[in-house]
Structure formats: structure tokens, C-alpha cells
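hiii, so i know i said id send this last week but things got crazy w the move. better late than never?? heres the sequnce for the chain we talked about at the cafe, plus the structure i predicted for it. fair warning i was half asleep when i ran it
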Amino acid sequence: MKNILVTGAVGQIGSELVEKLREKYGNNSVIAAGHKTQPTEGMRKAGPFEFVNILDKEALEKFIVKYNIGTFYHMSSILSAVGEQKPQLAFQVNILGLYNVLEIGLKYKLEKIIIPSSIAVFGPETPRDNTPNETILLPTTMYGITKVTGELLGNYYFRRFGLDVRGLRLPGIISYKTLPGGGTTDYAVEIYYEAIKHKKYTCFVRENTVLPMMYMPDCVKAIIDLADVPLSKLKHHTDFNVTAMSFSAGELADSIKEIIPEFTCEYKPDFRQAIADSWPKSLDDSAAREEWGWKPEYDLPKMTKDMIEKLSPKLKA
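okay and structure toks below
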């Protein structure tokens, strides 16, 4: 059996994805790769870890050969807020890095490549309520532009060369284990930390800002479930809408107040508000549900309860 590679393994999603994949396939069968950030001691001890630059195609090829890689979870990405501050870097990492991955996939006949996309592919012209899977893709951010390009490239390599490339449009992801890395939905994670530590938070989007969200256990489950489904069941490939819940920043704060009554939140929108306003409020993910049985487990109250229960001892320690 060939091994699994996860790039971006030290990131918010990658770190938990590696953990679940190692539980399923064995520690030594899942190779974690990062760029500069040091992994946790637990990740390094649990299985193979190496640093790799996805823009260095030759080094990446040697990595594929060395570890006999068959399945590639390509999680490396420059996210939306950082992408607006460093658009050239976002272009290089998100597009040129992906191109290297796809070309290597062809050369070494990789079995599967998973390339997560994002709700950032949508723009102001897209219907914002119950956004369809097939709709207008006119993003206004460099991050969104790179993600649309990634979807198109992945579908092209599948149709033109038969390379099994799969992807899903992730909403905002919330986790208690690893902090997010510069996305527009980071407030939905930061608010829990600040509620527990200081009982107050200043949110960088308006109180009535509604966005689709997902708790990390559901996110990791969705990525692995999509990778595992037989190719014959898929009509779509790199562009599945997936979601679990939609709520406003104010509703999120209220859910925390149910458990921490003294918590207060004020709202001071910054440049990320314009990004949030260009994204959907809710998604139609019926294609994912029909083609590979997608179904989330967490809603807002269940997620908030779990977040506070898991974060409280961690932060107090």
C-alpha cells in the first residue's frame, strides 16, 4: 500500500487531518509536511514529518519518491486576509504550488489528490442565500481568485488526463486545537478564546454578519469522506459545496453568553468586513449529500458547548 502525504500539516485544518488519518491508516503511513512552522512535539513523535516548499518542484518530487506517496492531501494555502496583504505570495503558493502538485501527480501516477477550495470562490454577484453549487464565480479577493483557478485546474486535469483530483468548498472552520492562520472567519475562533480568558471580545465584522461555518470534526470528516468515496459515484470533482450551519456574529456571541453570562462583545469592522460581505450567508450542499453522503454532526449550540468544555482547561493551564 502506498503512503499518504499532507502538506500544510501544521496549519489549522492540516494538523487535525493528520491526526485522524494516522488513526485510520497508521502513524507511519501518513507523512506530515510543513513549510516553516515547527510541528507540535506530538505530531513529530507520532509519525514522519519533514519540511517541504511546494514551490520547489524538484524537492517535492524527491519527497514523493522517498515516501512512496499514493494519496496527496494538498492543504498548503495562503488564506483570505493574509492574501489581501500579500497577493503576490498568495498567487505563488495557491496557484503555482498547486500546479506543481498536479504535474507531479501526473508524472508519478498518484492515486488521488485532494485540494480543498473555499466559499471565497463566490463574489458579490453570487446569490448569497442557499448559494447553489453551480453559480457565478466572480471573487473579489486574490484568495478567491486562486481558489477558482484551483477548481478549474483540478477539473481540467481530471477530464484531460484522468488524474483523480477532488475538492470541496469549505466554509469558516472553527477549532479548539490549533489557531487559524489569517482568514476572514478567524473571529469565530478568537471569540471563544477571549470569552474564556477575558470575558470580552472585539469582533472585526458587524454583529449582523452571517456566514456559513463548520466545526473542525465535521471538516476533517468531510475531507476524508470525499477522499474515500469511489470515483464512480462522483459527478462533481473539485467544487463541492459543504456546510454545517450559518449564524451571525451576534448569534455566535449569544451562544457563548448562554454558558458564560458575563461575556460581552463589541463590533469594530475592519478591512475583512468587505471580504465577508462578498461571501454567501448559506450554502446549498445537496450535491455533496447526494453523491457521497455528506452529513454534519454539529450545530451552533453543540459546537459552542464543546468548544468551551475543551478550551477552558487548556487556557486555564
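btw The CA atoms of residues 157 and 163 lie 6 Å apart. thought thatd interest u
miss u guys!!
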